[in-house]
Amino acid sequence: MTLNTAALGRYRTMRRIRSFEERVGELFLKGESAGSMLHLSIGEEAVVGMTDAMQTGDTFTTHHRGHGVFIGRGGDPSRMMAEIAGKEDGYCRGKGGSMHIADRALGHLGANAIVGGGIPHVVGAGISYRNAGLGQISVAFFGDGAMSQGILYESMNMAALWQLPVIFCCINNQYGMGTRVDRSADHHDFPARAEAFGLNASRADGVDVEGVYTAASALAHAARQGNPGYLEIDAYRFYGHARMDKSPYRTLEEESEGRARDPLLAARARLAAAGIASEADLGGIDGDAAFEMDLALAHAIAAKPPVLSTMFEDVYAPGTAAPRPQAERLTAILSEGARA
Ligand SMILES: Cc1ncc(C[n+]2csc(CCOP(=O)(O)OP(=O)(O)O)c2C)c(N)n1
Ligand SMILES: [Mg+2]
Fold this sequence. Notes:
The protein is α/β, with parallel strands linked by helices. Helix content is 46%, strand content 11%. The chain is built from 13 helices and eight strands. The chain has a six-stranded parallel beta sheet with strand order 2-1-3-4-8-7, sandwiched between helices. A hairpin with a 2-residue loop joins strand 5 and strand 6 (179-180). The protein starts with a helix and ends with a helix. 45% of the residues are buried. Magnesium ion binds next to strand 5.
């Protein structure tokens, strides 16, 4: 693949992420989302620089704002949207939703709603990859909020000590809910923290997906040799923490400056200026993405919900029964339904 084709591919993925997030926001507003929370990653699309630096067989975990990462790793928007709508043909048969989606086939070891919760899982994956020697890496994606979680530092320490093929990727969108990053950490040169543990550390401008890709590729290459890394992507969360948050803690000036740092529009302008794609080519990509996500939204709304009797399937480890009170309650509901 030429460099230009790869850059155009990254633009396409970013556009698909933006369109997915817009449509999933509509799903929520239509009251069709199964969960009460929805975290959009609009403004953070340059994460595609990291997902593109990964290879088939690599694995990852995400935080609660992980739609973009999953699409970057090949997630099917239709199955993702169906999952968020709580439908049977979603990735987790409608039981995971946005914040607990997972798919072993694509290397998605799980989104996690606990801040920092998915970070140690990549260390475990890294131990098995190091032992198997197959050259895979595992990447934890998380937000700046996790930079104050102890589990991150235990994980960094182990990864460095045991030379594990892992990358810690922090999407620093400047806020953890309503708290700006300089109010949650006195010293927020986060790459310096990672270096102190012995990791290779880089910071990349989240407006520039190609810069993210360059930094991520170098870290991924080193991680495959057993030199773990940390990548920080500096971005801005365009909208509220979750769908209902109107961000009263930010000024309108700050928001409009933040939204002007748009990685999608920056990539589009760069491709056009470099003559890599014409306005018609780019418009075609935009239109295709919108159409794809319109279909995903329609599919999610029309798809069937799971049948009640399957409520506990895939929820507990194989061979483990559901807790007795819940199981009895389900049996009672099903038998009442049968009598009615
Ligand atoms: C351990 C823990 N503490 C608090 C929360 C509540 N909480 C949910 S999201 C969030 C902010 C996370 O911020 P960040 O990690 O920067 O991710 P972002 O939402 O900005 O993508 C908090 C505090 C939680 N889910 N888990
Ligand atoms: Mg944040």
